[in-house]
Amino acid sequence: MLTVTSVNVNGLRAAARKGFVPWLAETPADVVCLQEVRAEAAQLPDEVRAPAGWHAVHAPAAAKGRAGVSLLTRREPERVRVGFGSAEFDGSGRYVEADLPGVTVASLYLPSGEVGTERQDEKERFLAEFLPYLVDLRKRSAADGREVVVCGDWNIAHREADLKNWKANQKKSGFLPEERAWLTEVLDENGGGYVDVVRALHPDAVGPYSWWSYRGRAFDNDAGWRIDYAMATPGLAARAVKAYVERAASHDERWSDHAPVTVVFER
C-alpha cells in the first residue's frame, strides 16, 4: 500500500502547539503533504523541521510568514523539485514535488484569491501557468513509466456538492464559474488528464468537506468546503482503495481550520 495524506496546517508552528506533533507520530501515511506552513525551516521546532523517521523537504515563501509547502516522506526521495518553472511563483512557497519509486508526489498550495483584488489576479495568473505544467508532468511521467499525485489545498470547490452553502458563494473566489471550469480542464482526459481520487471513490457524496471557517459555528454545523484534493494520474487513481477526511471529533480538538485528507493506494 501507499498512503498519502495532505493537510493545510494554517501555520505549522501553531499547529505543532495544538496537536500536529502527536497526529504525525500516529499517522500511517507514507507521505504527508503540508500547505500554508508559514515559516522557514530554521524557525520550526526540531520535531516538525526534521521529525524522526521522516525525510523532510521544506519550500518556504520568499515573503516571510506567507504560504510555504512541505513534504514528509518515509523513504528518501530520489529527486526533489521546488516550483514548476515559473518566474513569478517558484519563490512563493506554493509547490514542491518529490520522486519516490514509481510515483511523483507533490504538495500544492494554490492562491486563495479575492474577487476584485490583486489577489484574484494573482490566482488567475497561477492557474494559467500551472495547468500546462500539470499536463507536461503527466506526459513526462508516463514516458518514464511513473505515476503522479498532486495533493494540497487547491482553493476551488469544483461542484455544488463540494461546499455547503454553494448558492451564496457563486460570486466568491473559490467557486467562480471560471475557476470551476479550470478544475474541470485539469480533470478532462483531453486536458490535464488527472482524476479527483476522493470524488472517484465517493461519487454521490456531499463533501466530504475538508475546510471549515473558524468564524461562527461552521465546524459544528458542518458548513464546510471540499477544496483539498488528491489529483492522480489515471493509472494510480485506479489503484485507490480508500479515501477519507480525518475530521476532528470536536471543534476544540482541531489543530487547523483544514482536516487531513488521506488516500490509500494499492502498490
Automatic annotation (TrEMBL):
Pfam family, one: Exo_endo_phos
InterPro entries per UniProt: AP_endonuc_1 (IPR004808), Endo/exonu/phosph_ase_sf (IPR036691), Endo/exonuclease/phosphatase (IPR005135), ExoIII-like (IPR037493)
Cofactor: Mg(2+)
CDD domains membership: Nape_like_AP-endo (cd10281)
Keywords: Hydrolase, Magnesium, Metal-binding
Record carries keyword Metal-binding: yes
UniProt KW Metal-binding keyword: yes
Location of the Endonuclease/exonuclease/phosphatase domain: 6-258
Top-level taxon of the source organism: Bacteria
Family membership noted in the UniProt record: Belongs to the DNA repair enzymes AP/ExoA family.
Protein name: Exodeoxyribonuclease
Organism listed in the record: Streptomyces kronopolitis
